[in-house]
Amino acid sequence: MMSTATTETLTADHPAHRSLWNSSNLALGALILLVVTATPQLICMPVTNDVSYYDLQARTVLRGGVLYRDMVEPNFPGVVWVHLTVRSLFGWSTAALRAVDLCLFSLTVLLLTRFVSAVRFQLGFVLFLAYYSVSEWCHVQRDLWLLLPIALALNLRWAQIQRSALETISNRTIFLYGLLEGLVWGAGVWLKPHIVIPALAVWLCSLSQPALRHRALKDLAGLITGGLLMGALGIGWLYWYGALPSFLEMQLDWNQEYLTDKMLDHYGFVIFNMVVRLFPYSFIHLAAIPTALALLVRQNLQRDPSDRLRLHLLSALYLAWCLQVVLLQHPFDYVHFPPLLLGITLLTYWIHCNRSFPRLLKITAGGFIALALICSPVTKPDYLCLWDDCLQQGSTSTIRNQLARIPYPDWEDLERVADYLRQQQTQDREITCYSNDLVHLYLYLDLEPSTRYVYSHHQATFFPSKRSLILKALRNSPQKYILTNLMTPGLLVNQAKEIGPEGPHGYPPAFPDNLKSDYPWNLPIAFRSGTLAVHHYPGKSTNSQTVIPTSKSIQPRSDDLSHGSQQNPANE
Q1: Residues 509-512: contacts with CB under 8 Å, at least 24 apart
Q2: Could you tell me which of 240, 247, 255 has the C-alpha nearest to residue 70?
Q3: What is residue 504's predicted lDDT score, i.e. its pLDDT?
Q4: Does the pLDDT of residue 563 top 60, yes or no?
Q5: Closest CA to 534 of 407, 452, 424
Q6: Could you read off the pLDDT of 501-540 as tens digits, one per residue?
C-alpha cells in the first residue's frame, strides 16, 4: 500500500511553483479578450464538406431513411448522432453547429485545465488561441470532439487512482467507477474507434501506482463492462433503425480498402501543406515527443509525486494518440490538430513543474506564444474589422469568403450555381455533386443526391474495387446536372478561374487534355462561375434505384448557404 504521505500528495493539488507560467491574471485577461474579439467571426466562418455530408445523413434519418444503406459512410455513426441531436434541438443553421462546436471545445479545455489546474488560465489561453487560429477544416470534426470524452476519462482515471489508495474503498466501488469510466471511453469509440489505443495507454500507465495495481482486475472488469454496455447501446440503435447490416458491410468489406489507402503517391506534398497550415503549432511535436519519452523513461524522484504521475499520464496519452494518428489515419489537418493540443497541455504543465527551468527555454516558450499571436488570423486588422459585420449580417457568402482559411469553394460562386439550378427547377436526385466540396448544395437547395454515393469522386478513389459499381449507379440515376470544381484535377485557383478560347462554357487553358474524355469532364458545360462548373447530362433516362424518403418536413438551413469545405486531395 502507499504511504500516508504519498496518498496525501495524490489527493491534493499543490500550490503553483514560481515560474514563467505564474501570470494567471494576465492569461485570464488575454483569454477573455480573445473570446470576445474572435467569437463572432468564428461563428460566421464556413465549415467543411464533411460537416454537410454528416448533415445529409442526419437529414436522411430524420426523413425516414436508413443510415449506411441510403448513403455510403465508412465511419462509425457517433458523429451522425451528434448532428441528429444538434439539428433536432437547434435547427439547421451553420451558426448552430459552430456554437455547439465551441461549447464542446470549451468543455474539453475546462476538463484539461482541471487536470492541470495550477496552470489552468495559461493553458486555456494557448488552447483557445490555437482553436481560433486554425482553418475551418479542424472545426466541427470528430477528432476534436473525441478530445472531450478523453479529457473526461483522464480526470476519472485520476480520481480512480486516488480512490484506490483509500483502504476504506471496497472493490465493488472500484468496479462501479471503472464501469463509469468505461462508458465514457465507449462513447468515444462510437465517434472514432482509434480511441482504444490512448485508453489502453492511460490505463497501463495508471498501473504504476501499487494501490491500483492490487485492484487491477476489478478496475479492468469495470472498464470493459462499461465499454461493452456502450457498445451494446450503439448496436441496439443501429439494429432498431435497420442500419446494422449495412454498417457491418461497410466495416467488414468496404473499409479494408479505405484503411490501407494513405495517399502515398503524394504523401510528402500533403504533409508539407498540412505543416504549413498548422504553423507554428505543427512544430510542437519537436519538443513534446522527446519530453514525453524522457518523462516516461527517466524517473525524477525529486519531483512531487502528484506532478510526476500527472505528467506520466499526459505523456502516455499524448504518445499513444500520436502513434494511432501516424499508423492508422490519413494525413488530414483535423486528424493531427488534437494531438498538438495534447502536446501543448503536456509542455505547459511540464514547464510549470520544473522549478529550475533554463532561462533560454523559458524565453523559447514565450517566443513561441508571441509567434503564434503574430501568425494567428485573429490578430489581423482585416479579421478584427469583420467583428461588427458578423454581428449585424451573420454568415453571408461574402463574409464567409473573407473568413475562409481554405480558398475553395468560393461561396459567392457557389451561390451563383445555386441560383442557376433553381432557375432550371431541378428536382430530387437530378443533381450529382461530383467534387466533394460542392455537397453543401444538396442542403441549400433541399434536394436529395442522385445516388447513395454522395462523395462519388472521393469514393471511386478510395474504394477502387467499387468504382464500376459507383459509375453504374451514376449512369442509371436520374441525374441531369453534374457539378464539379475545376480545381479537382490539381489546378490552382487562378488557373481554374481563367476563361480559355472556348469561352465561358469551356475549360480553362490549364485543364489537362487527357481528362476531357473521362466522366464527368466529357460532358458539356452548361454554366460556369469561377472555378465551379455545371455539366449537363444529355438525353437522361429516368431509371432509378431505391428512392430515399423525401418528406420536406425537415427543412435544412434556409437561413444561409450552408458551409465551407476542404477539397479532398485524393484524385483519380
Answers
A1: 511/486
A2: 247
A3: 87
A4: no
A5: 424
A6: 888 889 999 999 898 888 899 999 999 999 999 999 886 5
H or E stretch including 51? helix 49-62
Cis before 549? omega within 30: no
Cell of 467: 468504382
Q: Which three cell numbers stand for residue 121?
A: 488560465
pLDDT tens figures, 47-101: 999 999 999 999 999 999 999 999 999 999 999 999 999 999 999 999 999 999 9
pTM, entire model: 0.89
What grid cell was written down for 252? 467488414
Of 367, 369, 482, which is closest to residue 122 (Cα–Cα)?
369
Which of 17-21, 197-201, 521-525 has the lowest average pLDDT? 17-21
Give dist(CA 68, CA 263) in Å, integer. 24
Kindly tell me if the per-residue pLDDT of 276 is higher than 50: yes
Three-state DSSP class for residue 92: coil
Half-sphere exposure of residue 212: CA atoms within 13 angstroms, side-chain side: 22
Q: Output the CA–CA distances (angstroms, integers) from residue 43 to 77, 136, 390, in the order listed.
A: 25, 11, 8
443's CB contacts (< 8 A; 6+ apart) are 52, 55, 56, 59, 92, 556, 557, 562
The pLDDT tens digits of the residues spanning 134-187 come to 999 999 999 999 999 999 999 999 999 999 988 889 999 999 999 999 999 999
> Where would I find the H helices in 241-304?
244-249, 255-260, 267-277, 284-297
* Triad 501, 504, 506: Cα angle to 5°: 60
For the purposes of burial, counting CB atoms within 10 Å of the CB of 509, is it exposed (0-12), middle (13-18) or buried (19 or more)?
exposed
Q: Which residues are within 8 A (CB) of 156 and not within 5 positions of it... i.e. 6 or more apart?
A: 177, 180, 181, 184
